[in-house]
Structure formats: structure tokens, C-alpha cells
Amino acid sequence: MTEQTTPNHPGDVDTEPHGSNDHGADHGHDDHGHEPEPLGPIDVFAWGAFVLGAALGLAVAFCIALATADVAG
């Protein structure tokens, strides 16, 4: 015996918050949407550490490139 299952779509189940006839087709209504969350403050310390780390990484890469360059040409 094989059982075929289909995924639930918005409005397919009576126990959903908006009932069985709500398929999210009305303008501006999203069954899967959430209220927008406000962005928090910028973490200046973390961004500063990121920029410093990237700069130091580029400095190391530049030094390795200089050390392995063929100067005799």
C-alpha cells in the first residue's frame, strides 16, 4: 500500500491561524511573513577589528609577495 502525501500550503488546514480559506492572495497579506525587526546599533569595535585584521592580512600578503619576487629579473 503506497500513500501519496502532498505538502501543506497556506489555507489547506483548518487549524491554521487564518482558517482554511486563507491562501494569502489578498494584497499586502503574507501568511509566512513576520513583523520587521529594527536593526540594532553598529558594533564599532567589531567592525574596527575586522578592518584591522583585513589590513594586517593584506600587509602580510604584500610582504610575502615582495620576499618571493624575482628581483634579478
Question: How are the SSEs placed, and which strands pair?
Answer:
Layout: H1 44-67
Helix content: 25-40%
- Shape annotation: elongated
Beta fraction of the residues? under 5%
Q: From the alpha carbons, calculate the radius of gyration and give it in angstroms.
A: 28 Å
Distance between the termini: 77 Å
Mean pLDDT: 77
Oligomer: single chain
How many strands, what sense, and barrel or not for the largest sheet? none
- Poorly predicted runs: none
SSE order: H
Instruction: Please give the count of helices.
Output: 1
Main attributes of the structure:
mainly alpha; 0% strand; elongated; 73 residues
Characterise the protein shown here.
By secondary structure, the chain is mostly helical. It contains one helix and no strands.
Report a brief summary of the structure.
The protein is 33% helix and 0% strand. The protein has 73 residues and is mainly alpha-helical.
